[in-house]
Structures are given as C-alpha cells and as structure tokens.
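Example 3.2
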Amino acid sequence: MFHMPSVKWLTRINNGGLINQFFMALMVTIPVLNFGMLLGWQSPMTPILQSPTGPAPEPITDETISWMASLVFFPPIFCGFLMGNLVDLVGRKKVTLLTSLFLLISWTITLFSLRPWALILSRAVAGFACASCYVVTPLYLKEIASDNVRGALGSLFILSQNLGYLLVYIAGDLLSFTMVMWICTAVPLLHLVTFLAMPETPVFLVKQGKQQEARAALAWLRNTTEDDKNLEEAVQQLEREEEYSRSVKKSSWKDLVKDKTIFKAFRIAINVMLLQETCGYLVVLTYAGSIFEQASESINLKLSPNKQTIVIGAIQLLGSIVASCIVEQTGRKWLLASTSFATGLSMLGLGAWFYVTSMSVWLPGWLPVLAMGLCIFSDAAGYQPVPYVITSELFSFQHRGMATSIITSFTALSDFLQTKAYDPLLKLLGIHWVFMMFSIVCFLGTFYTIMWVPETKNRSVEEIYALLEDGRKKQKNRDAEVAKEVSRL
C-alpha cells in the first residue's frame, strides 16, 4: 500500500484530494522549474562569462553563446520519439527521474569547467532533459488530475518554467556566480532523492497489471480509502480503457494518420503548438534590453540589465499564475484565442513603434514598454500553457505518448531554427517587419483557434472526438449541398 507520511498534515485539511494532487503536481514540475533556471541562467551569466576578469579561463565568444542557446533544442528533434516510447515502456516516474538526472549531469559539467567545449556539452546534455520533460510532464499532470482541476494542473507546466526563469534572474542579481551554480545543481539532486517517494500514475500502474498499487495511488490522490465505491468505479474505468487498448494493435505514428478523427486531433495539436512556438516570443525577450534602453530616453526608467530580466520574469510568472487560476473558468479555447489576439496586438504595436522611431519620429517611451509587458503577460497567461493542456486532452492513453513525442520533435526543431536564424532574419528585414510578421502569426492563431480548435474542458476523449466527427459531417453536408447547386447550374 502506498503511504505518504511526510504530508499527513496535508491530508487532514484536504478536500476531494485537491491538495494532494497539487502537491504531486508541484513535485512533478520541479524538473521543469530547473529547466527554466537553465534557460534563464544564460541571460544574467553571459556578461560574466564574456568578461576578461570573469570566472571562465578565457572570455566566451558570441558564437559559443549562440550554440549554447540553440543546442538545448537540438536533441529533442531526434529524441522526442524515443522519449515517447520510453514513457510508455518504463513509466512516467522513471522518465521524470531521468530528466532530473540529465539536468544534474548538465549542471555538474558547468560547475567543474567553463571552457567552451564544456559549456556546449552541458547544453547538449540538457537537451535530453528538454526532450523528456516536455513529453513526460504534461502526461504526468494529466493522469494524476481530477477532471475539475485538469486544466489548472496542466498550466503548472509553464508556470514552473517561468518561476525557474525568475528565480535564476533574482539569484544572478543578488548572489555570486559560484553560489548560483551550486543552487542550480542542488535542485535536481534534491528532486532525485525526494521523488523516489512519489507514486507512479494510476493509469500506468493499471497498464502494468498492478491494480492494487494503482488503487492505493489513486486513493491517496483522491484523499479517500481504497474500498471507496467511487474509487472502485474509477479503477474499473481505467481497467476497461487498458483492456480496450490491449485489444487493438500497439500504437505507432501510422495510427495517428490512419483514423481521420485522430488525425484531425493530431493536426490541431501540432498547429496550436507550432503557432505558439513561432509567435515571436523569443525575439521579444531578446530585445527587451533594447526596448528598456530606448524607453529610458523619454521616461525615467533606468534599470540595470539584471533588474530588467527580473521585471520580465515577474511579468511571466504573474501571467502563469493568472492562467492557473482562470483556465477552468474560461475554458481552453477562448483563453487561447484571447491571449493569442492580445499577443498579436502587442507585436503589432512593437513593430509600429520601431518603424516610426526608425524614421526619426518621436514617440513616448512608455508605448513599447506597455506593448512588451502585454506580450509577455498574454503569452504566459494562455498562449504558452494552454496548447500543452489541449494536446494532453486530445488523445487517449494509447496515442498520447506517441503524439506528444512527435509534437515535441516538431516544436524543438522550430525552437532550434528560431534561435539560430532570427539574427540573420532581423538583419535582412529589420526588427519592425519581424515584429509585424509575428503579429500576423498570432492573428492567424486566433482565427485558427476560433474556427477549428474544440473546447476540451471537462470533456472525455470520446466526447471531443464526437465534436470533431460532427464537424467533419457538417463539412461533408456543406460540400454535398455545394455540389448539388453546381450540378443544377
């Protein structure tokens, strides 16, 4: 039987297991938090690494920094498929532990050597953590959550990453380089030790034929007894789903395209994820320092680079908190549509500001700061986290791992290409046209969401697929009516 003696005080005040589920979700997302720290670490530490008097044996070149930024997203391009299979083969818990192990190795390499080869190797190892955490964490959160908090727990994925950004920004401003390194290394080490006490998801335990362990884990997550009638019904439902999945052929990428409804769900998942990844958010973060600098010329806003990153991190975290609080009230579809539209407006505002000021026309400095803040907040409040929630809800257990791994590979390729190609693109087009181009992507995302993305809140996979089937039938009927009209003519 599964016991959690260290959190008995939580169960005494628990209501329907929500506190247990949130506690479990926080434990699951610690590797994501540490990965956010790893991504954010480069911002405050780059000036230190490039300084002749810095801790590195030799000043780190811009080329090395560029490879450090992009190489994190290279392994997931090829390992996403592997992680998808691994998460179904050995389980969510072991892959989560593996993620922390990769992060520990990455930080340890940097801790003991700051030579270019070590920094690049460290980032390459971290890429494997990226591949695993972006596959396993949304699945873990989906499979431990009750239906009424599924969206809120799913949004913790991006919230944890943004919290990691903010923590490393603050640490980089207040603490020494060495102290920051030790803190970043300690996080995955402590997680490896403590997460051993956490349960596997009931879904995977049933898949392994471990019904008693699944019942015990589910009882703790729901804060009830193992002989609870509702719990028994939940376990039986999981067993029926597993029995059905065994009755059909093992899932492969071909299964995602054979069935028209599943393929439609797969297309929707890829489209919302790619629209989110290519919205230009990375460019806004990159040019935040330039925006702050130009704004300070007309308003009293003089912040050091580290203070600027802390402000950005705080806005990101605030947006993520808002997403966790409202995603169950607003639903997935309209939160995604509204935040993508707000992000597009802010991108358009930034592009217009850069274009007008490039012609030596004065505009108030608070305009780009406001637009940048709106962009960062909107992105964190919905445009970033909601696609992960939708993707986890669009597929049954037998297809979820495979679909998530393929989508992770596509998004990783997008991130890699962006981080390597955005600088030449800026030089070719100019920052104003790049922002305007990204605003078009955001508006396309809004239109696509309204027209084709189904509402997945509080709906089972069967109900979602019924909506998709109904949409296809309506389209066929419309096509048939058009054909009749044409034949009459």
